[in-house]
Amino acid sequence: MITNFFTLTVLVAFALARRTCKVPAIGGGEDDGPAINAAFKKCATKSKIVLDKYYVVDSLLMTENLDDVEIELSGTVQYTPDIAKWSPQSLYLTYQNATTFWFLSGKDIHLYGGGTIDGNGQVWWDTYNNTHDSGTAGGSSTTFARPIPLTIGNATNVVVENIRQIGSPFWNNFVYQSSHVTYKNIRINTVSYSSSPTANSDGWDIYRSSYVTVEDSHVNNDDDCVSFKPNSTNIIVQNMWCNGSHGISVGSLGQYAGETDIVANVSVKNITMLNAQNGARIKVFGGNPDPESTVGGGTGFVRNITFRDFYVQNVDNPILINQCYSTNADVCAQYPSKLTISDVHYYNVTGTSSGAEGNVVVDLECSATCNDITATGTHLIAGGNSTSTEYICKNIATQDQLDFNCTAPNS
Ligand SMILES: *[C@@H]1O[C@H](CO)[C@@H](O)[C@H](O)[C@H]1NC(C)=O
Ligand SMILES: *[C@@H]1O[C@H](CO)[C@@H](O)[C@H](O)[C@H]1NC(C)=O
Ligand SMILES: *[C@@H]1O[C@H](CO)[C@@H](O)[C@H](O)[C@H]1NC(C)=O
Ligand SMILES: *[C@@H]1O[C@H](CO)[C@@H](O)[C@H](O)[C@H]1NC(C)=O
Ligand SMILES: *[C@@H]1O[C@H](CO)[C@@H](O)[C@H](O)[C@H]1NC(C)=O
Ligand SMILES: *[C@@H]1O[C@H](CO)[C@@H](O)[C@H](O)[C@H]1NC(C)=O
Ligand SMILES: *[C@@H]1O[C@H](CO)[C@@H](O)[C@H](O)[C@H]1NC(C)=O
Ligand SMILES: *[C@@H]1O[C@H](CO)[C@@H](O)[C@H](O)[C@H]1NC(C)=O
Ligand SMILES: *[C@@H]1O[C@H](CO)[C@@H](O)[C@H](O)[C@H]1NC(C)=O
Ligand SMILES: *[C@@H]1O[C@H](CO)[C@@H](O)[C@H](O)[C@H]1NC(C)=O
Ligand SMILES: *[C@@H]1O[C@H](CO)[C@@H](O)[C@H](O)[C@H]1NC(C)=O
Q1: Per-residue pLDDT averaged across 337-350, rounded?
Q2: Which entry of 180, 218, 246, 379 is annotated as an active-site residue?
Q3: Mean of the pLDDT values across residues 16-27?
């Protein structure tokens, strides 16, 4: 009893020692960005920041050098849809010309609180629909940057939980040059209410980062649910509900000649994938003879990837490997990919495809030989008007370790 009381007292003392910065909201549509940035500067170490109001944000949130900071977001952070202002002022990141509204950086950071991050995406999608003004790989251009609502960048030991994200103009979350980052209980809803579609509405993109976990989350969007970009290692994605997405995707990788891309040690488990273009996907560019190529020719590897307990419904390609991604078929045949794919395992992938690919439910096509690809517990039915199921394989060295019979692709 006495020990417990003592422990409690110490804990209370610690809690009291934490400096707290509560951020007021100006109201009337005025920019709360400067006050938020100021609070993060003042409360950058061993502190708590409270965001419990409705904030209008019209300037870049640069919250850096944080050390042991709790952020209670129980209110709403809503970014203004001011394209002319944000396009130059959002922070450019060094991948696919992605930019961000909020760069959250430092160590030992806990963001939580049940609040909302609102990207106000409708104006961006409507404008994009009519101008198609985009940078490389669908990313931002200097005149039309579609910023990412939350980037965890140059950070270690970060937990983001119990947050809602709506209306992202581009990817919802970017894990950038970070390690030991966990997201849980995140609800993402990126839905357009006009005739223009949303664009590049990925739930998560992970880049140059390791030890990242995404779990217990709910995603309604129209692009990758979670995507592992170059140099994503030691990743866990589990207990996810994804609707309308492009699947859980490794890649795309190998786009740039002279660059080495690695995705390794990925565990994807207990996924419900509904109304999607893909289920478990790996996409790698083909080779290219041009040393300056930006359409394939990169090297590296995809290794030790596990997809387990993966349920699909109305999904076009439940299981897909494409090692000639966005590559001219003739170029790819002559220059197979130099980015190897091996040690990929599918356990208990079940459910029904959409029928969009006819009878095909599995499509594993490598341009160079892929090694140690296995599947057990596969129970897939072709949906739509299909009457049987078909599994396509090309250059898979371990066809005998798949629990279905492969046929060669037509061409
Ligand atoms: C994208 O970024 C590259 C540099 O990484 C730059 O050369 C290019 O102009 C950018 N594209 C656009 C459309 O801004
Ligand atoms: C992130 O870290 C890299 C490498 O340490 C550095 O070059 C870059 O400026 C940092 N980015 C930001 C936005 O702080
Ligand atoms: C989106 O583009 C399509 C095709 O160009 C057009 O018909 C539609 O009206 C556009 N939607 C909006 C909201 O501008
Ligand atoms: C699997 O994920 C769903 C969310 O999609 C969750 O409700 C369920 O509890 C998870 N199952 C296990 C065994 O963790
Ligand atoms: C799931 O996505 C489909 C479109 O792909 C949409 O019509 C449906 O409303 C979504 N379901 C939920 C529960 O959000
Ligand atoms: C990925 O990591 C490898 C090995 O550390 C490195 O050589 C390569 O440059 C990295 N690639 C990217 C895109 O950061
Ligand atoms: C494969 O990746 C998992 C994490 O997903 C890791 O626990 C395991 O040690 C890795 N295995 C090898 C042989 O690298
Ligand atoms: C994968 O995990 C294994 C086992 O933990 C580790 O030895 C290896 O370095 C990891 N691979 C990468 C590329 O991080
Ligand atoms: C596949 O699912 C079955 C039934 O749910 C379970 O018993 C088995 O352990 C699973 N296999 C793997 C390899 O996860
Ligand atoms: C199924 O057949 C009907 C009637 O021929 C056709 O309208 C529909 O598009 C087909 N569905 C698919 C998924 O191919
Ligand atoms: C694969 O084909 C062989 C020979 O036709 C047949 O014996 C076997 O049952 C088939 N396996 C599956 C999983 O359909």
Answers
A1: 98
A2: 246
A3: 91
Strands 91-92 and 99-100: antiparallel
The pair of structure tokens assigned to 80 is: 């203004």
* Ligand 1 atom with the shortest distance to the CA of 142: 14
CB under 8 Å to 357, separation ≥6 — which residues?
316, 317, 363, 382
Residue 226: predicted pLDDT: 98
Atom of ligand 5 nearest to the CA of 222: 5
* Band (165; pLDDT cuts 50, 70, 90): very high
pLDDT digits (tens, 9 = 90+) for 22-68: 999 999 999 999 999 999 999 999 999 999 999 999 999 999 999 99
Distance (Å) of CA 79 to CA 25, 34, 56, 127:
14, 13, 6, 16
Distance from C-alpha of 336 to C-alpha of 149, rounded to nearest angstrom: 37
How high is the pLDDT of residue 96? 87
Query: What DSSP element (H or E) covers 307?
Result: strand 299-315
Q: Are 363 and 320 in contact (CB under 8 A)?
A: yes
CB 106 within 8 A of CB 69: yes
- Which runs of consecutive H residues, i.e. helices, occur in 285-379? 329-334
Q: H/E/C letters for each residue in 77-112?
A: EEECCCHHHHHHHCEECCCCCCEECEEEEEEEEEEE
Question: So what's the pLDDT on residue 12?
Answer: 57
Residue range 55-82: mean pLDDT, rounded: 98
Contacts 24+ apart (CB under 8 A), 135-138: 135/96, 135/97, 136/96, 136/97, 136/294, 137/96, 137/97, 137/255, 138/96, 138/199, 138/200
CB 95 less than 6 A from any atom of ligand 11: no
**Rounded distance, CA 246 to CA 223, Å?**
5
Mean pLDDT value across residues 113-138:
88
Q: Which domains does the chain have, with CATH numbers?
A: 41-208 (2.160.20.10), 224-411 (2.160.20.10)
Q: Closest ligand to 304 CA?
A: 7
